[in-house]
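## Example record

The block below lists the input lines for one assembly entry, exactly as stored, with component labels intact.
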Amino acid sequence: MSALTRDDRDLLLSRIRDVADYPKPGVMFKDITPLLADPEAFSALTDALAALCEKHGATKVVGLEARGFILAAPAAVRAGVGFIPVRKAGKLPGATLGQAYELEYGTAEIEVHAEDLGAGDRVLVIDDVLATGGTAEASLELIRRAGAQVAGVAVLLELGFLEGRSRLEPSLDGAPLEALVTV
Ligand SMILES: O=P(O)(O)OC[C@H]1O[C@H](OP(=O)(O)OP(=O)(O)O)[C@H](O)[C@@H]1O
Ligand SMILES: Nc1ncnc2[nH]cnc12
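Predicted structure tokens for the full assembly:
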């Protein structure tokens, strides 16, 4: 497991495709499917995320549905820690904690199984994109309400112009926000 080299970062960036006006006019959608289809890039990404788990002493990884699952699950396995899914409302069968939030292009609600997180857990949240920061902010609220500690947030791509970092700052409460690539 290792951090990203400059070449790795360039590789990741080159595998993220811009799709204009999706899912609505004015949005530049960042499509990670070309990256997922490239085993070299996906492996470098998984290594880098697993290294962040170790760096920040995470004992669990939370992945945010749906694209966050794809990145978080292999990183958790590689780091040797548990993977906890935070799902869109109505998908988890057990007793849940829920949190509503706003997206760049709509509103949503996420949930986690209450029994999956608790005191003693140190949680790294992993997602593909940080846009407005609403999803990550809601996930931090859930983690704290479950009684767990936030180790940090790690994203593949930060959309700097949407200023999600400043929105997230108060909820981070000193925990790190790690973006592998920022545009
Ligand atoms: O910083 P924010 O403004 O909250 O936006 C970022 C979130 O938006 C996307 O998820 P989306 O809800 O579109 O779901 P998906 O992963 O299921 O496609 C993305 O995967 C992040 O989770
Ligand atoms: N512009 C964007 N591209 C990809 N995922 C997103 N999630 C929120 N905004 C996004």
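The chain is about 35% helix and 35% strand. The mean pLDDT is 96.
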